[in-house]
Write a structure and sequence with these properties.
The chain has about 675 residues and is α+β, with helices and mostly antiparallel strands. The chain has 26 helices and 20 strands. Helix 24 (about 625-635) packs across helix 25. The longest helix is centred in the last third of the chain and has 34 residues, at about 460-490. It comes from Scleropages formosus (Asian bonytongue).
């Protein structure tokens, strides 16, 4: 020791040089699953590639299949699972044996500013900053490829058994939703999602590299760049820092990073945050999230000691009393100038329809979804949303109100119950439910609050609805025939009497604003029929049908109606196309739009609805390709499902020339869909 200050003596001074030639290219590879004594230096490297932006590397190295430790039967089995029995250039293992493996990298750290590779030579230390530190582990992607091959083989085996008719499952309905403008919060969540990051990673192309061994001359040449190339001192590099400052430069103090709180959904609020809000906002937030709640439960969620009288004042501003329970008001869920997230229907129309559902539950315990949908004439998704908010489905009883009747609350607060009853009467008057929903006065008479609801099964109510529909149909038929005779006689046309069949309804109530008297508003019997006894379609309706079939080529009647409902939802309120559109008018419009009905011979055990068995196809477009479609449609008039080679053979025979693969692909893409190795017309298969 030199002196009494306790400092260590300087033993040697070493010059330190900063080499920058490989600063942006130098990576440190780590193999965490491999002992340090077992390196890969002498193992043949077959290929290497990198994604520079992501710092992702893949190395393909050979496996010594001649080693006594190698299980040959297992290697052959893995190669068979991955590549099958075929010999192709794209096979993973060309030798029919697992003779190679792939290493895939992950970043050990994203901040490499404190790491460098050092080389000591002749009393000099040369440091090169590391661009990345990567850990390489074996990749098992070949197992995914084997699993995919297995699924393909199973699918091929199922498709090959064409002699047996298989029962088809229901086709999954596709719901079209109108997307809203993306908020900044939603955009931040999207770009941080796993799916988005995976997509961005897949977009960067691989850069293929050439591997050089440790002892290759090129490797030796590259190692020279680890030494500083310019040894001349061009500036004064004498250290003028104090010892403490120098240590701080070498090891800067750890700064506590600011923790960014994750962005949660806008409708999530903790109870601690909730109780910091004013009482009115607390009640509104709870009701908006819960939708239906007894008053006792609401008091239990609020802070102890909260005045029940004040809560009653607040709850009446944001909810309505239904069977003694509180249900959030429609205008709270659907504010002004908003629209349905499912169909884009305006908020005022949604509020009127939801208020009708709430009013029905003030009258009875259960409602039928079909009855409600036929009356409010809103898209099925919105009607289902209304019912799910305040009821649950019951077998043979329709949708039953979510909670039992709270007679205790009505008994304790008769003044509130009476006030809510008057509010319901006001809602009936405001929306004029009698006129809007064509309800009778008897239907509008509210039952007393203390009366017990009568339980009626769903089957009984369905029978009653069918009876009423049959009576209405007979009345409409008489009026229909009388108007048609009057219009035909005035036009000098003899009309053949063709009564409707029992299975055909004069009006489809699933279409919004259907006709109640057989004619659109403002149209007389004379101008509502053309010379053939069919409804005359409007120009706008015919334009919609023509544009739809130009896009889809083949559609079932039910799919046309669904697309028409979506089209109506996109129109402004009061549009002229909102006039009554019946099934007959829609079918006549299709047939007048260069389309024909394809009589597909469905199997007798088919469970498809009548509308799904009515298949229409665009027959004439003015293209020479029309003859290809005509041959295809003729095939499907004899068989409801066929194989691709059958279609190709028939086209070749009819056209007298070889049909190209591009024409076959175009024809099948326009008109057909594949399922189980067979081809069906669009809309006629239940997958």
């Amino acid at each position: 020791m030199d002196g009494g200050d306790g400092e260590d003596p300087v033993v040697q001074e070493i010059d330190v040089y900063l080499a920058k030639s490989l600063a942006d290219k130098l990576y440190l590879f780590q193999y965490p699953v491999r002992p340090a004594c077992m390196t890969y230096d002498d193992v043949p490297h077959l290929s290497a590639k990198i994604k520079p932006k992501q710092q992702k590397v893949e190395l393909e190295v050979a496996i010594d299949a001649m080693s006594p430790n190698y299980c040959r039967s297992k290697g052959e089995q893995i190669a068979l699972n991955v590549d099958g029995t075929t010999s192709e250039d794209s096979n993973t293992y060309s030798t029919k044996m697992m003779d190679k493996q792939t290493f895939s990298s992950i970043q050990a750290t994203t901040n490499t500013s404190r790491y460098a590779a050092g080389v000591f030579r002749k009393g000099e230390l040369h440091l090169t900053p590391l661009h990345g530190i990567l850990q390489l582990r074996p990749s098992f992607s070949y197992l995914d490829k084997a699993d995919t091959k297995h699924r393909e083989r199973e699918a091929a085996n199922e498709a090959g058994d064409s002699s047996q008719d298989e029962a088809e499952d229901d086709i999954k309905q596709i719901t079209v939703r109108f997307s809203r403008p993306e908020s900044e919060q939603a955009r931040q969540r999207r770009i941080q999602s796993y799916e988005f990051l995976q997509k961005k990673q897949a977009e960067e192309p691989w850069v293929h590299l050439h591997y050089n061994g440790v002892k290759d001359s090129r490797s030796e040449h590259e190692r020279q760049y680890l030494f500083c190339q310019s040894m001349e001192v061009t500036e004064n590099t004498e250290l003028v820092k104090t010892r403490s400052e120098y240590l701080s430069m070498l090891m800067p103090p750890v700064t506590e990073e600011k923790v960014v709180k994750p962005v949660g959904p806008s409708n999530v609020l903790s109870m601690a945050q909730l109780r910091t809000l004013p009482l009115g906002d607390q009640v509104k937030t709870l009701m908006k999230n819960v939708k239906v709640m007894p008053f006792a439960n609401l008091m239990g969620l609020l802070s102890s000691g909260t005045d029940s009288t004040a809560v009653l004042r607040c709850i009446q501003q944001v909810a309505m009393l239904v069977q003694g329970n509180w249900v959030v008001k429609s205008d709270v869920l659907y504010p002004k100038n908003s629209c349905s997230p499912h169909s884009g229907v305006p908020a005022d129309v949604l509020c009127r329809g939801r208020d009708y559902v709430m009013w029905r539950f003030t009258q009875e315990r259960s409602v039928l979804r079909k009855e409600v949908a036929a009356i409010v004439k809103l898209p099925p998704e919105d009607v289902k949303d209304f019912l799910e908010q305040m009821s649950v489905p019951r077998l043979n009883r329709g949708w039953e109100f979510l909670l039992p009747t709270d007679t205790e609350f009505v008994r304790k607060h008769p003044d509130v119950a009476q006030r809510q009853h008057m509010l319901w009467l006001g809602i009936q008057s405001k929306y004029e439910l009698e006129k809007v929903y064509s309800l009778s006065k008897e239907d509008m008479v509210a039952k007393k609050a203390d009366s017990q609801p009568v339980q009626v099964s769903g089957e009984q109510r369905l029978q009653a609805a069918r009876q009423r529909a049959k009576e209405n149909q007979a009345s409409l038929q008489k009026d229909f025939e009388r108007r048609r005779q009057t219009g035909a006689e005035s036009a000098g046309v003899r009309v053949k009497e063709e009564p409707l069949s029992d299975t055909e309804e004069p009006m489809d109530t699933s279409l919004p604003n259907g006709l109640l008297n057989g004619y659109p508003d403002g149209m007389s019997s004379t101008d509502s029929f053309n010379g053939h006894g069919a409804h005359a379609p409007s120009k706008e309706l015919q334009d919609f049908v023509e544009a739809t079939f130009r896009k889809h080529y083949v559609l079932t009647l039910s799919e046309v109606k669904r697309l028409f409902n979506l089209h109506l939802a996109s129109l402004p309120p009061g549009h002229s196309l909102f006039g009554g559109i019946s099934d007959r008018l829609l079918q006549d419009t299709i047939l007048l739009s260069n389309c024909r009905q394809i009589a597909v011979p469905f199997p007798s055990q088919s469970s498809a609805a009548m509308d799904e068995q009515k298949v229409f196809a665009l027959w004439h477009t003015g293209e020479t390709f029309d003859k290809h479609r005509h041959i295809l449609f003729d095939i499907y008039m004899k068989h409801y499902r066929v194989r691709r080679n059958v279609i190709q053979t028939r086209l070749t025979q009819e056209l007298g020339e070889e049909v190209t693969k591009a024409d076959i692909d175009r024809l099948l893409k326009e008109c057909c869909i594949s399922y189980g190795g067979m081809w069906y017309l669009k809309g006629t298969v239940r997958s």
